[in-house]
Amino acid sequence: MHVIASFEHSIYLELAITALEEAGIPKEHIYAVSLQARPNKPKMFDTIHRSDGVSLFDAGTALATALTVVGSTYGFILKGGAILWGLIGATVGFTIGVLIDIAHKKKKKANLPSRDKITEVILLVACVKEETKQIQAIFWEHHAFGVAICE
User: Fold this and answer.
1) Cα distance between residue 113 and residue 122, in whole Å
2) DSSP alpha helices (H): ranges in 23-81?
3) For residue 8, what are the β-bridge partners?
4) Does the chain have fewer CB atoms within 10 Å around its N or its C terminus?
5) Mind telling me which residue stretches traverse the membrane in this protein (predicted)?
6) Which of 44, 15, 54, 45 shows the shortest CA–CA distance to 32?
7) Which residues is 5 bridged to in the sheet?
8) pLDDT tens digits along 49-108
9) Which residue, 139, 144, 140, is CA-closest to 20?
């Protein structure tokens, strides 16, 4: 039998391994494998096949629409006409909106903990069937992300 658990690389992992050893599981039956972090950074722009749910064009399109209406309205008064000032409003609004979204995304990213440093560790314990419930309880007590029992 094998009991497999996923942990964050933290002190709880070390405590879980120590608790397993105190429960009588030999060191030779405990395997810990650290997963590697993502080698490339997330991309700024989404594609049809991959999206992170964050769009850089939402505020841009909203501001472009608003400034197009304002520009074309005042374009009847200003020299150049409504169409020219509507296009200028759309361009300025879209640019400002995209810059706001980029600044907001960078600010949000700066406040989050760095994802490059967070990795998971998979802990595998080879045991007899009678020990599985005890090992599973130890894993849950030490904040495992998930636990599985395999035959």
Assistant:
1) 21
2) 58-75
3) 120
4) C
5) 53-77, 83-103
6) 15
7) 123, 147
8) 666 666 777 888 999 999 999 999 999 988 989 999 999 999 999 999 999 988 887 776
9) 139
